[in-house]
Amino acid sequence: MSTYSVRSGDTLSGIASRYNTTTGALAKANNISNPNLIRAGQKLTVPGGSTKAGATAAAPRASGGTYTVKSGDTLSGIAQRHGTTTSALAKANNISNPNHIKVGQKLTIPGSSGPKAPAPAPSKPTQQYTVKSGDTLSGIASRFGTTTGALAKANNISNPNHIKVGQKLTIPGGDNFEPKPPSGGGGSGPVTGPAPAPAPGGGKGSVSVQQLRQIMPNLSQAKAEQYLPHLNRAMAEAGINTPMRKAAFLAQLAHESGQFRYMEEIASGAAYEGRKDLGNTQPGDGVRFKGRGPIQLTGRANYRAAGKALGIDLENNPKRAADPDVGFRTAAWFWNSRNLNTYADAGNFREVTRRINGGYNGLADREAYYRRALNVLR
After folding, report:
1. Assigned architecture for domain 197-378
2. What is the pLDDT of residue 349?
3. Can 315 be counted among the known catalytic residues?
């Protein structure tokens, strides 16, 4: 047995994975009835107590060696776990598309002495990208393995929030990853590359714990601290990075999840059984693919589409959608799949509601959150 002190941004599933145990075993050993509710500073008893790849309880370190990809892994998650970068990990394993890794694949982990962010070779050809409807500079940067700042500098863009459809962008070096096409709706779809990792409450486009609790007054300090890193990363990944976009997004999430009280639908999901419009074609699909996440992802087809876009096998691991590190990303995926940044930019909150809800149920409550969020974020 060993102990671990929970840090801001930790999830029980992530801690379990790091220590070669299961979420269920970790929850049982600590009498945790809800695996989604752990608090920063909480002391956990770890059954077994052996970390992966010689990692310490505080955090895995980059020490070289190999890693075998497991179901639900992403390249960015593996890189973060081993103290390296997605680009360095991709380069060390000749991976041209960081969204395509396979269960059982053996990865070489570059040592800590290696370069953190390899610069592109001077001989690499310059890439061009034409801005499409719904695109954001941060999303384009993520897809091409570069940064928003580098992309803005290369194209003399003074305001990263102002790019135009049809605009030709020069892509500075990056990793020459090909961007994936939109996954649905009339917009650009979600960013499909590795999620950025801004510090909680810091960085452009992020919100703070104080702001989040002002918008959602029934949200506890502990839960706000637990969820905020995942929320900020998801918003950065999806280009939800202006006061108008953040206010609309947070208002909808607040209503849909009861101020983050519910990350999984209370009902069993049996009502969705046989719903072919949701892709529920196999016995048990209704319960298996019930609503999860702060905007409830529902149905086999949506789990498959979101998982494909995010590089996570949600179809075979549907319960991962209720974990905050995944749930906020699926909410952002849903948001972008319906081109909602465009309507948020226009202040058309009513249309945002219609595209999320299919109608206007709870509109007054959603609008109350929206007004409060605008006042907090402006």
Report:
1. Orthogonal Bundle (1.10)
2. 96
3. no
Q: Which residues of the chain have pLDDT under 70?
A: 1, 8-10, 13, 17, 34-36, 48-64, 71-72, 76, 80, 99, 111-126, 133-134, 138-139, 142-143, 145, 161, 173-205
Sign of CA dihedral 334, 339, 342, 348: negative
pTM over 0.85: no
Q: What is the largest CA-CA distance in the chain?
A: 59
**The pair of three-digit structure tokens given for residue 269, joined into one six-digit string:** 């999901």
Query: How far is the C-alpha of 90 from the C-alpha of 60, rounded, in Å?
Result: 18
Partners of 111 in the beta sheet?
63
Q: Which residues contact 258 (CB under 8 A, 6 or more apart)?
A: none
Q: What is the pLDDT, as a whole number, of residue 323? A: 93
Residues 95, 96, 98, 104: is their CA dihedral positive or negative? negative
List phi, psi (to 5°) of 64. 75, -165
Structure tokens at 18: 């790091």
What are the backbone dihedrals phi and psi of residue 271, each rounded to the nearest 5 degrees, phi first?
-65, -20
> What span, in angstroms and rounded, lies between the C-alpha atoms of 10 and 37?
10
- Here the tokens at position 316 are 């075979």
Q: Pull the structure tokens for residue 6.
A: 């929970």
Active-site position among 178, 256, 264, 367: 256
CATH number given to 2-54? 3.10.350.10
> Residue 207: what residue type?
V
Exposed/middle/buried for residue 241 (C-beta within 10 Å: 0-12, 13-18, 19+): buried
* pLDDT of amino acid 130: 87
Instruction: Name the nearest CA neighbour of 263 among 301, 304, 292, 242.
Output: 292
Q: In which residue are the tokens 């979101």 written?
A: 306
Phi and psi, residue 216, nearest 5° = -120, 80
Other Cβ atoms within 10 Å of 42 Cβ, number: 16
**Quick one: CATH architecture of 127-171?**
Roll (3.10)
Domain residue spans of the chain: 2-54, 66-108, 127-171, 197-378
Judge contact between 109 and 64, C-beta under 8 A: yes
